[in-house]
Amino acid sequence: MADIAGLAASAAGGGLFGLIGTVIGRVAGVVEARQAQAHERARWSHESDLLKLQMQAKAAESESELRLAESSGAWAGLSASLAAEAAIGESYKWVNAVRALTRPALTVLLWGITGAVFAGADAAGRQGIVETATFAATAATLWWFGDRGPRREVR
Q1: pLDDT of 83-142, one tens digit each?
Q2: What residue spans of the chain are helical by DSSP H?
């Protein structure tokens, strides 16, 4: 009977240790799965952040290219305008006088509009309107009078 009791105790002990080993193995598997999932979530988050940064960089690049295209178009328009004016040539004295007075009159008118808008607009509407009027008046002043400097003779 001692042999049977020893055999039963060995079987029970082996079964118990086998069961404990299985539970430990399952717990270790769950822990490993959680770690793998956490690693995948971190990797996906990192990839998502990289994609967002790439999108922002492409958006900034597109915006920069758009500004460059607008700027080059503006310079081409200015160049064409100056070339067209240079091609007009001389005319009657009264025509030249009217042409010469047009720029100053328009500039004074634009600055007057800017002042009137600034004085008459409320605080909410003043910002955008004044910026636009100031841009127009400044552009007129610098563009119309910028090419009126004294001409230097080439020696």
Answers
A1: 776 777 777 888 878 877 887 888 788 788 877 877 877 777 777 776 777 787 777 777
A2: 2-88, 93-120, 123-146
Place of tokens 């960089």: 57
For 148, phi and psi rounded to 5 degrees? -100, 10
| Cβ-based neighbours of 111, under 8 Å, separated by 6 or more | 137, 141
N-term to C-term CA, the chain: 131
The pTM assigned to this predicted structure is 0.34
Q: Give the Cβ contact number of residue 140 at 10 Å.
A: 17
Tell how far CA 41 is from the center of its chain: 29
